[in-house]
Amino acid sequence: EKLLTDQDMQDDIFTPFGPTVEPYLTEQCMIPKEPFEMARTAWGDKIDIMIGGTSEEGLLLLQKIKLQPELLSHPHLFLGNVPPNLKISMEKRIEFAAKLKQRYYPDSSPSMENNLGYVHMMSDRVFWHGLHRTILARAARSRARTFVYRICLDSEFYNHYRIMMIDPKLRGTAHADELSYLFSNFTQQVPDKKTFEYRGLQTLVDVFTAFVINGDPNCSMTAKSGVVFEPNSQTKPTFKCLNIANDGLAFVDYPDADRLDMWDAM
């Protein structure tokens, strides 16, 4: 029996099992209402956090596309990526779908060979737009600090998740690629000290360690680069982030903010 429908796959639901809203409110209840509603009064708003992602998070979704490549040519690809929870008419959904097509594939069509637009769309829809809303919402309702980072370390050999789990021929920084820079793993690889991979490793470990110990991610690596990693203070687009890239560190406006503006307009 097929547990996941085509619509489930379209909505990026990978498993039929997961947390649900609990029907009875008891002392042991963990999810009494929709997480979106719970977030508005979350105790986490009272603590400082560091939050972020990678530049090509959407590479992760190519795992699904490899199993069902026909999804890229499905006539409802863009319509299906308009968030299903939006209370808008079908006419409005079709209008937004056309904007998605124009933004990510203005002069071409998605395919396995032409997947960059899909990767960007999934990076925005599945990962960064939610992060973006969380970052701005915390600034609006909380005095706790929110430090935002973006990891853009594109290595030919050290982005282990992309290489081993997605496709060794692809480039970019995929979801979970940062783990190799933060923790040792079964490959036991250590980059040469003269490489950007080693500098990226040093930076991530230093930033995360400083935040854990001092509650402030500024550290020797940020100081060496002449960068001050500041908490977000914006309640409206766009936020600033620590951009950790092949060519070094910079504290900048989020580089893909124009794409998030389009999702905000929905």
TrEMBL record:
<keyword id="KW-0325">Glycoprotein</keyword>
<dbReference type="Pfam" id="PF00135">
    <property type="entry name" value="COesterase"/>
</dbReference>
<comment type="similarity">
    <text>Belongs to the type-B carboxylesterase/lipase family.</text>
</comment>
<dbReference type="GO" id="GO:0106435">
    <property type="term" value="F:carboxylesterase activity"/>
</dbReference>
<feature type="domain" description="Carboxylesterase type B">
    <location>
        <begin position="8"/>
        <end position="232"/>
    </location>
</feature>
<keyword id="KW-0719">Serine esterase</keyword>
<dbReference type="InterPro" id="IPR029058">
    <property type="entry name" value="AB_hydrolase_fold"/>
</dbReference>
<keyword id="KW-0378">Hydrolase</keyword>
<protein>
    <recommendedName>
        <fullName>carboxylesterase</fullName>
        <ecNumber>3.1.1.1</ecNumber>
    </recommendedName>
</protein>
<dbReference type="InterPro" id="IPR002018">
    <property type="entry name" value="CarbesteraseB"/>
</dbReference>
